[in-house]
Design a protein that fits this description.
The protein is mainly alpha-helical. It has five helices and two strands, in the order αββαααα. The protein has helices spanning about 1-20, 30-60, 65-90, 100-110, 120-125, and strands spanning about 20, 25. Helix 1 runs antiparallel to helix 2 and helix 1 packs antiparallel against helix 4 (about 100-110). The radius of gyration is 16 Å and the shape is elongated.
Amino acid sequence: AAAAAAEAATAWTIAYTKDREAFGERIADFQNTRFRLADMVTTTEVMWAYIDQALRAYKDKKLTAEDAAKVKFWATEREWEVLDTGVQLHGGYGYIMEYPIARAFTDARVHRIYGGTNEIMKELIARDL
């Protein structure tokens, strides 16, 4: 869910910044925006790779509870960062619930809670150190 939400948020944000203008230029043409979009894309792709690695380990019956906790913790924290960036790049529209980015941002908060809070995930990880 975290990776799918991050991927969707990235796509919405890319599309939005290509359409929206500020100071006579597309938002997507500003260097800061391009760098932030690059971060979103890269983070999302790495998130999918990490999840895929965990799924392979699970399939092979090699996924430990600690490794599962690492994936859940890391993916949901990165999801939050990607969505936060998406909201920022949408500007004021990022807070209007008619925009999918605003709904996704609100919905994503629970990902760091359910399935075990990220603090519990850190505890599971720390016990294995």
